Amino acid sequence: MDVKFQDVSLAYDNSHNILNKISFTIPEGQLTCLLGPSGCGKSTTLNLISGLLAPTAGQIFFGDQDVTKKDALARKVGMVFQNYALYPHMTVLDNICFPMKMAKVKKADRIKRGRELAALVHVETELTKKPSELSGGQQQRVAIARALAKSPSILLLDEPLSNLDARLRVEMREEIKRIQKETGVTTVFVTHDQEEAIHIADQIMVLNDGKIQQFTTPNRLYDQPENLFVAKFIGSPIINTLPFADVRDDFKNVLPAGILTSGYTLAMRAESIVPASDPHEHLTLMPLMATQVQSNRFGRETSLTLNYGDHEIVADGFREQDLGHNGRPMRFAIRPQGIFVFDQTGKRIWPATIETNISPLKPTEVIHA
Ligand SMILES: Nc1ncnc2c1ncn2[C@@H]1O[C@H](COP(=O)(O)OP(=O)(O)OP(=O)(O)O)[C@@H](O)[C@H]1O
Ligand SMILES: [Mg+2]
């Protein structure tokens, strides 16, 4: 079942809207992430979907049905929170079966279904244990199985992995993705971690300032940020940003006149800055002269801090043999992918449409610095 918000606003008090007339459709059978900084209204949005909160204005639909006035019970959603909230005195199997017991499902049927769900989330060998005898990851699996036990119309997960250590988080996000694909249940997953969202989601809704900043697939979010907020929020290391006025002259041969006049911020992904000896040099937009300030190796990756004009920028993805010497100016090249220009309001103005507007220099036109 898809979930539709139509001009939904929410204010906890009468003073200001936490969510300001937001409209979106969460597609059926997919995993959608709500992503944004702390306090932007992710849990609020989730609670509006679940029916734990009622909107101040606007309408909410499940499929064709207007559920705005329906409570959480009637909406039949399954919820999993950050802290597992299992019943401590019940076994794993009883925890999973509890929603079916409440729904008066026959004992034999609910135990059969409970075992199936335990197998789905891979806790079938822990059925007689109490929650306190499980690891954090196992507890969260049980919580997911319990949420699925009422055959929910929608599964809502609010930062379900934030209590887990880094390795377990990565493992569990793959598990949630698998469980979602196996069950096909429409799922909304809240996180403030952009990397987690990118790995798990079919599509991501970025929230900030009470508004949807962008709602699209993870790759489009990365490749085609509509505004400066999204460009800076998605990707690690954080995208380099420079006042456009300081670099305008360097870009005057490659950007259209209109962009040169209205550009306010230039943003460059770290991997868009490549060695001048890049084998795909003919695909590069332009050369760039910069001074290497520092190089750092982080296991597989090497990142460089460069001085470009008066600004420090970060480049990464370099091989050991491409590194220069600190303090010496060097020639780099810029690839067109991952270079964006934003206007004063933060809206992306270049490339206008990513697919058609990039015209890298042809091999014969490459400028040699
Ligand atoms: N019950 C409440 N009463 C008043 N204000 C609230 C209430 N719950 C949340 N808020 C405010 O609404 C805003 C959004 O809160 P919300 O919990 O939705 O944020 P969030 O995006 O989930 O953040 P986090 O990542 O920290 O969980 C915050 O400014 C918060 O202080
Ligand atoms: Mg929250």
Describe the structure.
It contains 12 helices and 19 strands. It is of the alpha+beta class and 369 residues long. Helix 3 runs parallel beside helix 5 (136-148) and helix 4 (107-120) crosses helix 5. Strand 18 (339-342) and strand 19 form a beta hairpin. It has a 6-stranded mixed beta sheet, with helices on both faces. It has a 5-stranded antiparallel beta sheet with strand order 13-17-14-15-16, with no helix packed on it. The protein has 2 domains: 3-223, Rossmann fold; 239-365, no CATH class. The protein binds adenosine-5'-triphosphate (ATP) and magnesium ion. Magnesium ion binds next to helix 1.
Reading off the top of the CATH hierarchy, the class of the largest domain is best stated as Alpha Beta
Spatial strand arrangement across the major sheet? 6-7-8-3-9-10
Alpha carbon gap, first and last residue: 57 Å
Find the structural class using helix and strand composition: alpha+beta
Low-confidence parts: 356-369
CATH homologous superfamily identity of the largest domain: P-loop containing nucleotide triphosphate hydrolases
> Mean pLDDT, nearest integer?
90
Q: How many domains make up the 3D coordinates? A: 2
Task: State the helix count.
Answer: 12
Q: Specify Rg, calculated over alpha carbons.
A: 25 Å
How many strand elements? 19
Task: Categorize the overall geometry.
Answer: globular
Beta-strand content bin = 25-35%
* Main beta-sheet annotation: 6 strands, mixed
